[in-house]
Design brief:
alpha/beta, Rossmann fold, binds NADP nicotinamide-adenine-dinucleotide phosphate
Length: about 325
Amino acid sequence: MDQEVAAVKVFVAGASGALGIPVLRALVSHGHEVTGTTRSPDRRRRIAEAGAKPVVTDALDREAIRSAVASAAPEAVVDVLTALPRPGPRRAADLRATNQVRRQGSRNLLEAARAAGARRYVAESFFLVYGDGDHGPEPLSEEAQVPAREPSPPTREAVDALLAKEGAVLTAARGGRIEGMVLRFGGFYGAGAGTEEMIDLLRRRRLPVPPRSRGVTPWVHVEDAAAAVTAALERGQAGGIYNVADDRAASLAEFARRLAEAAGTPPPLPLPGFLIGLAAPYLKRLLVDTRLRLSNRRAKEELAWRPAYPSIAEGLPAVVRQLKGGSA
Ligand SMILES: NC(=O)c1ccc[n+]([C@@H]2O[C@H](COP(=O)([O-])OP(=O)(O)OC[C@H]3O[C@@H](n4cnc5c(N)ncnc54)[C@H](OP(=O)(O)O)[C@@H]3O)[C@@H](O)[C@H]2O)c1
């Protein structure tokens, strides 16, 4: 554990999710005393195995979440709430539940954190808050306007929900009501974060990628993302916004090709972009049509965060080794 940082009681909402479980492990490994939520009694065990105390509650139920946070009496609260379908979102409609939990659930959690006297608050956001489409070749810093480009119809609702979630946290921080921070993540990959499902699609030749596209987007290994949550909780500035992505953006085609090579599957199936767009309009706007690089300089300087996997070239083979039972 970092000797300068005192261990504190942390409440993690969304603890059973793709990011939640690595966040629990990272916080516990730093000596923090962690409570983690799920709506499902079946998932309590997963949270306990990660070293945290499970609590069953629903963030959309204002009274329930208020009482759960009050009982845990945390010094810090982490919001990693999403409600995504298992294979990941393809259409705008797949984001409806997540948009709702980002608007209402996250607001209830913030209120509950303040009511319980929590001092620090770290909230998950996503690079899509900058808007989809072509942002040019230069990496965006946190100073860029959000959205920096007008979102297209398949992503508009998701961008609005991210803005609402960020806005609530940053307004509370500016008002001195809580030391709130926002982390704008690249796309997650890793064990438990959709990569197994992608390998399975590759094996069945069901993962299409466009043969030509200018799109590149930021990525982050989910364990690096979890390390950034811990670093923000321990060292982030109140009101801080941090881009959390590895050092090199990459296209979906490169991601799929590298994953196929690492996992020993057939290569991804080339399919024209417009056909991908018919089946998965949101995914195509997000990962095929968007050219967006993130500067991670602020996270490195202020949080002393360094991605253990500087790009997918190192990260994807490590994930495959981990899934095969070796160490990453
Ligand atoms: N999370 C991401 O940002 C992300 C990124 C890339 C890919 N994916 C893929 O998307 C799929 C689903 O992601 P996921 O595993 O993170 O699950 P998820 O269904 O998005 O849930 C994330 C977390 O939020 C919690 N949650 C959702 N609604 C809630 C509510 N109303 N009140 C309290 N807690 C609530 C879930 O708890 P419960 O235990 O109650 O469900 C879970 O802990 C996976 O296949 C994943 O690989 C996710």
